[in-house]
Structures are given as structure tokens and as C-alpha cells.
Amino acid sequence: MFMLDQLTHRGLAQLAKQYGGLFHLQSGVLHMVVVSTPEMARQVLQVQDNILPNHPANIAINYLTYDRADMAFAHYGPFWRQMRKLCVMKLFKSWGSVRDEVETTIQALASKAGSPVNIGEMVFGLTRNIIYRAAFGLSSNENQDEFVAILQEFSKLFGAFNIADFFPFLSRLDLQGLNKRLVKARNSLDKFIDNIIDDHMEKNYKNISNAEENDTDMVDDLLSFYSERGKENETNDLQNPLSLTRDNIKAIIMDIMFGGTETVASAIEWIMAELMKSPEDLRRVQQELNEVVGLDRRVQESDLDKLTYLKYVVKETLRLHPPIPLLLHETSVDSEVAGYFIPVGSRIMVNAWAIGRDKTAWDDPDLFNPSRYYKENAADFKGNNFEFIPFGSGRRSCPGMQLGLHATELAIAHLVHCFSWELPNGMKPSQLDMMDVFGLTAPRATRLVAVPISRLSYTFF
Ligand code: HEM
């Protein structure tokens, strides 16, 4: 019998194996297809891109994204296209906040050298700070706790099982009290971001004659597309999609907070865990850093392109631990996948986790082996090799890929250049727990704890 706990990347990979790579579930209220081989992913993401262009939403997502006023849940069409262009061109640039926040983390680690550090918590704090600062600017840092509480409640509500998603007529009864929580969460976000927007508008107004003012954050950038007309009419203006409403601004900020925080944190923590588990690979990365950077100065962004082995380590970790293990799409018309009729509105999941470990596509698929990318025409994750899709592929693939990779590579380069790392209490690399937990992302089941030991002749203070 089909069990709900099989709906994880591991459970679905097992089921797909039994059914030749494709698992198809059809019941009265649910029509779902899970594909788990590179060839099926190609069929779905490339060939059928035009019929699977949307991410499915539920009641919570509709409400918390102001009725899909964001990018990630906007239906494919002119509004989504404009939002995506805006995000890629204006917002997802290489933010200075990455450099500054990595530096703050390294300084904090240096003061703890010799003692065990919870890497998972540290890295999550790092990515949250990067994105918070990029979105709101430096001066808003003191309100971070309030915003994190809002994010956490949003996250719980996104993931909550709501019976009204399956039986809409029950929504008005609010049997689980979820409607009340949704309204409260959205009111908190409204209040929080409205204050920030008002502060920014006032600041920008005062600085209007200051030509040297170029220290903008994401809210500043978004405000340059904000229209008073949109404010009155609060709808997505398709005639002029670049006139944003406050709802659009709030919803985009939430996309970026959700899209960019846990994904990058999960990648960095997994990379550190794989390196702790494989001291020989850690040694090779450090050797490369010795050659490219040396021990008398710190890593700079311009060094990253020369750190080939470090990039292979990042790739290999994303293959084994894609931060988003299941890509969730929705058909916009009736269609067919591998001979199955799929009606409009069905869920199609692509199991990126299983595909990265596919035996027909990868030699020794469960082995962590960064050297596999040395060969010519090695698979890459830019979206054309369907055996390697941690960022997805096609028009709904990740628009934050460059930024996510930049933050990941810069953080790892500094962490392993500045410090040697040991496991606490004499733990052996083979004893490290490498299990994950399933959710929207698949982070480590147990947080990584390790001891940093300074290794530079350069002093931090
Ligand atoms: C290692 C880091 C990251 C990974 C592995 C990752 C992975 C992904 C994946 C797999 C998707 C969905 C693809 C699909 O459904 O087919 C996605 C979408 C998205 N990501 Fe990322 N991501 C990362 C970093 C980021 C960052 C840093 C941001 C923003 C600053 C971001 C923003 C988004 C957004 C807004 C979408 C939705 C795009 C749309 O629907 O058009 N991601 N990401």
C-alpha cells in the first residue's frame, strides 16, 4: 500500500525504481507523476517545457504570496517574464554583502579557534545575514529577529497539511485554525515591510540631490519600479508590468529570502561535511589554495576562477545533495509523459536527488569523487545535462544560480583557507552521520560540528 512517508526524495526514488523510473499516482483528488531518470527529466523539462511552466501553489502559498504577486509562484506569462528579468538584471547581482558577511563569520570563527563550532547554525546565520542585508540594507539589521520569526511562521504555513487544499468547501470552517494564522502572518509581514519601505522612501527623498549616494539595497531597487498607480489599484498591471505594487515588492522579497537562504546554507554545510568525511579531498583543496593564494594573504574574489578543485568539490556535493531534491511543476494543459495521459493541473515532480545518483549516468554514483569532473565534456549543472540538475533546467530553472554559487564558493574558500578542521571528541571521519531530512530543502539530519584551527601566517586582528 502507498504510504504518505514515501513522498520523500528517497521514498519516491525507491518507488520509481520499482516502476521503471516513473511513478504515477492517480486518486480522486490527486494526480501526480514523479520522474527519476535523466531521460525522463529531459522529456519533462526540455521537450514539454511549454506545458509544465508553473510551480503549483496551495491555499497558504496563494495567500502569503499576495495571490502569486511574486516570481516563483507567478503563472508563466508576461508578468512572470518581466519579474524574472527584473530580478536577474537588477537584484541578483554579486552583492557586496556576501564579502562582508563572510568576513564577519571568519572573524567570529577565529575567536573560537580550538573549540567545537556548530557549522550548520553558523552557516545558516551567514546566508540569512547576506540576504537580509542585500534586501534591506545595513541600517535595518537590528530588526532581524522579528523578520526571522515571520519567515519561520511562513515556512511552517507553506508546509502545513491543510485539509481545505483537498476539500475547498471546508475552507470557510477553518477547522485547523490555519486561516487565522495565515491572516496574522501576512499582517505581520505587511507591517514589517511597510515600515521599511516608508523609511527607504523618506531616505531616498532626502538624498535626492546627493549624486554620490549609490549604496542601494533591494528595496531601493524595487522602489524605483514602484508606482503610485499600482498602490491605488493593487493589481498586477500587465500593460506595464514594471510598475510594481507594494504587494509585488513584499512577495519578491519573500521569494528571495526563501529561495536564497536555506539552499545556500545547505550547500555550504554539506560541502564542509563531505570534506570532513574525506580528509584527502580537504588536503587537496588546501594545497590548491596554498598554490593560488599562499598563506600570507586572504582569498579574494578574483582567485575563485583559479580554484578548479574547489569548484569540483562544490559540483560533486551538489550532485549528491541537491538542496532542493524534488522539483515541483504543474501542467498547464492536458499532456503525456512516457505514455501516460496527464490532465491539466497535475503535479509533475522531478527527483533531482535520484537523478544525480542514477547508475546508468554516473560511475560509482554514491561515491564522493570530485576528480570525476577532470575529464573532457564532464557533466555540468547549467541545465543541459539532465543527469545533473540541482538548479533545474528550462524556463523555471533557478535565477539565483550565479549568486548562490558565488556565495558558496567564496564561503568555502575562506573557511578552508583560514582554518584546518577537525572533528570533535576524537570522532573519526567514517563516523560522521550523512543522513538528510526531507522538506522543501534537504539539509543534514544532524548539524555538523567541527573544530577550526588557524592555519595562516596572516593574523586576523
Ligand atoms: C546553491 C544554491 C541554490 C540552489 C541549489 C537553487 C536551486 C533552485 C531550484 C532547483 C529551483 C527550481 C527549479 C524548478 O522548479 O525546475 C530554484 C528556483 C528559484 N530560485 Fe534557486 N537555488 C539556489 C540559490 C538561489 C538564490 C541565491 C536565490 C535568490 C537570491 C534563488 C532564487 C530562486 C527563485 C526566485 C526561484 C524561482 C524561479 C521561477 O519560478 O521562475 N535561488 N532554485
Automatic annotation (TrEMBL):
User: What biological-process terms (Gene Ontology) are attached?
Assistant: secondary metabolite biosynthetic process
Instruction: Alphabetically list the UniProt keywords.
Output: Heme, Iron, Membrane, Metal-binding, Monooxygenase, Oxidoreductase, Transmembrane, Transmembrane helix
GO CC term, one of those recorded: membrane
The subcellular location is: Membrane
- GO: which molecular function terms? heme binding; iron ion binding; monooxygenase activity; oxidoreductase activity, acting on paired donors, with incorporation or reduction of molecular oxygen
- List cofactor names only: heme
Question: Main localisation, per the record?
Answer: membrane
Q: Report residues binding heme.
A: 398
- Claim: Metal-binding is one of the keywords in the record: yes
How does the protein's chain sit in the membrane according to the entry? Single-pass membrane protein
| UniProt xrefs under CDD domains | CYP71-like
Q: Which domain of life is it from?
A: Eukaryota
The entry sums up its family as follows: Belongs to the cytochrome P450 family.
Entries under PANTHER family matching the protein: CYTOCHROME P450 84A1-RELATED
The protein's name is Cytochrome P450
Species? Aquilegia coerulea (Rocky mountain columbine)
